[in-house]
Amino acid sequence: MSATQLLSNLLLCLSLIFQCSFAVSPFGKIIPRFPSPLIHPENYQPSLSNDQSGNNGLYKTRYFTQILDHFSYRPESYQTFQQRYLINSTFWGGPRRNAPIFVYTGNEGDIEWFAQNTGFMFETAPHFNALLVFIEHRYYGKSMPFGGKKEVAYSNASMLGYLSSTQALADYATLITDLKKNLTAEHSPVVVFGGSCGGMLAAWFRLKYPHIAIGALSSSAPILDFFNVTSPYIFNDIITRDFRSESKNCYKVIKRSWQKIEVTAKQQGGLEILRKSFRLCKNFKDAEYLTGWLETALVYAAMTDYPTPSNFLTPLPAYPIRQMCKAIDDPSKGDDDFAKLYGAANIYYNYSGGVSCFDLMDDSDPHGLSGWGWQACTEMVMPIDGNRETSIFPAYKYNYTDTVSSCAVDSSVVSRPTWIPIEFGGHDIRRTLRRFGSNIIFFNGLRDPWSGGGVLKSISKSIVAIVAEKGAHHVDLRYSTSEDPKWLQDVRKKEIKIISGWISQYYLDLAK
Fold first, then answer.
1. Hey, which residues are catalytic here?
2. Where is the signal peptide (predicted)?
3. Least packed by Cβ within 10 Å: which of 24, 58, 177, 396?
4. φ and ψ at 81, to 5 degrees?
């Protein structure tokens, strides 16, 4: 596999927000993994990773008996599984006041990790007297069909066939409806929230179930990132622009490094030179994994180019792209491009300084993300592929056929790259949503490569696009800090004002 093919496969299966180490999935894909099993809320002091009960002060853990298949009536469709959700009622005004319910539509991973990094909902709950609910996506975390056993649920295509966005949305609708009934809160308005893949689900939920949710905050949601809707080159174009805007020399060094790595790897003892240059563990044996590891650091640095320090994916300084380019531009490194590139990678992978060597073969999956390989190769087939001559990555031409062929996950299962735009809309989205959509906020930060597939212009008075030139991946949903720039504070204020309007209008309609 060439370096360009490696990048193509990597980006095809990127789980919209995640960091790497590499492993091969059951379907032959190289999929990003988390190197550490620990997850930390950014503004919460106790160690949640050691709390097995879920009753950690931030939320309580509950389970809902969910049906396996919402869309057919075969006997096997009525099988059930336990779907996890997290709930915080600290600030809820209760059913007598018809106080609102804020629901996070879970992403492709462990719901606790998302809840602990969605501070916006916790911080706005007191203002709205809102109940908070975070629902885990089926086949992720602890929400496993077929007896709760991942090895069974993931064992073959017949078992995994119930993993889809439409089933997940139906799960959310069913759970929310039942929860409101049990709380005697049938008249409490529901607003859904989500970032990245969860943001896509939040927007689609509002469109598909407008009788359940009165509005949606869809942050960094690439709902247009599908075939014949968005250019396959835009994702890497944005990353190139991000690094080039920080330093032209930084851009040039990275761009020329790929060939140097390839040439070095072919030399006698070249792999050992690369291993030592990049402080790789002794199990390193393939330069293509090094290339993918470095490329992934660039991708995720662009996504998480936050204006304040973060530990969402890994401990990072504020504006990590700037710090990576400072490492590359360091004059003390002379003409040693590998030393410069190592310095940049070290910012991303080892900012805390605790790594003695980098294990590129780490196949751990503590956040339960592996189901995304299935989704990315069935319905979520996004054409993030190809590089122009000016790209920071090696140039290669996008090929539709190759992309679809690489997603043949099973001899009996074929990718459906055009299904999502048919199911949820995508082509001519402005005209489509103007006719039947309402009450959706689309936030996008233009530093985020996923913004290329986002809604960047308001569609109507109630379908509002908020765009932040310096924003990164769902930065608006993060915990606020005293160091937040004014533009980020203004974004959140605007979102709160819009949501307040939805809820006020709901109460007016309820009183009629």
1. 196, 448, 473
2. 1-23
3. 24
4. -145, 165
